[in-house]
Amino acid sequence: MEKQYLLGYDIGTSSVKASLVDAQTGQTIASAQYPDSEAPIMSKQAGWAEQEPEMWWDELKAATSRVAEKAGGSLADVKAIGISYQMHGLVCVDKECRALRPSIIWCDGRAVPYGNAAFDAIGGETCLAHLLNSPGNFTAAKLAWVKENEPELYAQIDKIMLPGDYIAMRLSGGDKKTTISGLSEGMFWDFKNNEVSKHVMEHFGFSDSLIAEIVPTFSVQSRVCEAVAAELGLPAGTPISYRGGDQPNNALSLNVMKPGEIAATGGTSGVVYGVLGDVNYDPLSRVNTFAHVNHNQPDTRLGVLLCINGTGILNAWMKRTVAPEGISYGEMNDLAESVPVGAEGLSVIPFGNGAERVLQNENPGASVHGINFNIHTKAHMLRAAQEGIAFSFAYGMEIMSQMGMDIKTIKAGHANLFLSPLFRRTLAAVTGASIELYETDGSVGAAYGAGIGAGIYKDSDDAFKTLKHIATEAPVAETAAYKAAYELWKECLKK
């Protein structure tokens, strides 16, 4: 039987990861990333964050070479390529497909005044009804900054792109294309009229010609050109058949495609991403709504994105500063579990890593409440910290429920915070949802997406039938104790 391999790329901020997946078995044949240490972010002024698109391309070539080596030296059996990428970045290219300036990436804050002014000028109700968000600090606002501050460069722009669009263009030798999902994350898509937003384009004075050709998320969008194929060791003409932002793609990698399903990650920051089946938004913009990878009229599929900055970073801080020196995360979890649910009245607010969108961009800082010097120990602090992180997830998910999302299942990769039974148990108890853990990551998800787009799989359920399920955490019997601790935590949050 002919081998059918799928190649997935994850264009991250710190590195590019590539994974080669056997389409028949679902087995990951090889994975590699480049560089080994974090890629640089340029910050010429406070609040700026830029990366060279050419650097991503060089990293992709290096990661591809490593994957080929691990796979026995050949990528001749690759049948399709998928791309996941860091969201909300701006890449400006000229007619010759050259990047005109460094990419203004997702964490760059310079465009906030432009987005806020657009929200006021267009009107809040209009923005929320059509864009489902404020223009905020997204790609359209970043382009407005370039237009005002770099007019000569702006005049040279042929097309604006997201990072994944740029990589697909390089792989294909010049095809400039994008997706509705991509345009929505940049605040260029009008959900009410199902078209590129006239409100945004007219307000900022952007020409429609700046928008690349729109292609379906799952489709043969373009093909690897001969020159690139020779350079990377890929078959010429290999379909590039999927691209998606990193958070929608993480949801795809967990087969989170249906309304009410939730994907969660708990690294330095925490992300909850849920699928909504009706056009809706949070009137306070505490969560962001974009087109999910399977959004396709008339089947509305929106991704509701909740981001919490102060999650895993709090657990890491506790390990460095509170936990007994030299213990592992596993030993730290055991110590935390030695005290009762609710940590005997101790509550930790985890928001100590900058402004929190879920709190309407307030920055309350982290805090500890209810300390009793006669009762509380390091173990109580460690437990209260993990419970506080779980409670912050639940707090955000309450907002998602208010938008009409019926949350029954939370899917997550078996990594980071989700390795902790205490964290999982707490989150399941306060949300009432089961937590399912799987073995997957973003580059593997992109590979599966490529298989769907190329027609190797008939749909996502077919693609993910081999997805390895590791464990399920169902809500525990002593739910009342967890919910009481959660209510106390919410009271502390108000102080």
Supply database-style keywords.
17 helices, six-stranded mixed β-sheet, 2 domains, seven-stranded mixed β-sheet, Nucleotidyltransferase, domain 5, globular, single chain, 23 strands, alpha+beta, 495 residues, 22% strand
Question: How do the helices and strands line up, and which of them pair or pack?
Answer:
Elements: E1 5-11, E2 16-22, E3 28-34, E4 50-51, H1 53-70, E5 78-85, E6 91-93, E7 103-104, H2 112-122, H3 124-130, H4 139-149, H5 151-154, E8 159-161, H6 163-172, E9 177-178, H7 180-185, E10 189-190, E11 195-196, H8 198-204, E12 213-214, E13 218-223, H9 226-232, E14 239-245, H10 246-253, E15 261-266, E16 270-276, E17 288-291, E18 302-308, H11 312-321, H12 329-336, E19 347-349, E20 367-369, H13 378-402, E21 409-413, H14 421-431, E22 434-439, H15 442-453, H16 460-463, E23 468-473, H17 479-494
Parallel strand pairs: 1-5, 5-14, 9-12, 15-21, 21-22
Antiparallel strand pairs: 1-2, 2-3, 4-7, 6-8, 10-11, 13-14, 15-16, 16-18, 17-18, 19-20, 22-23
Helix pairs in contact: 2-4, 10-15, 11-13, 12-13, 13-14, 13-17
Write structural notes for this entry:
This protein is α+β, with helices and mostly antiparallel strands. The protein has 2 domains: 5-248, Nucleotidyltransferase, domain 5; 256-439 and 458-495, 2-Layer Sandwich (Nucleotidyltransferase, domain 5). 35% of the residues lie in helices and 22% in strands. The protein contains 17 helices and 23 strands. The chain has helices spanning 53-70, 112-122, 124-130, 139-149, 151-154, 163-172, 180-185, 198-204, 226-232, 246-253, 312-321, 329-336, 378-402, 421-431, 442-453, 460-463, 479-494; strands at 5-11, 16-22, 28-34, 50-51, 78-85, 91-93, 103-104, 159-161, 177-178, 189-190, 195-196, 213-214, 218-223, 239-245, 261-266, 270-276, 288-291, 302-308, 347-349, 367-369, 409-413, 434-439, 468-473. It has a 7-stranded mixed beta sheet, with helices on both faces. It has a 6-stranded mixed beta sheet with strand order 3-2-1-5-14-13, sandwiched between helices. Strand 1 and strand 2 form a beta hairpin. Helix 2 (112-122) packs across helix 4 (139-149) and helix 11 packs antiparallel against helix 13 (378-402). It starts with a strand and ends with a helix. The relative contact order is 0.12.
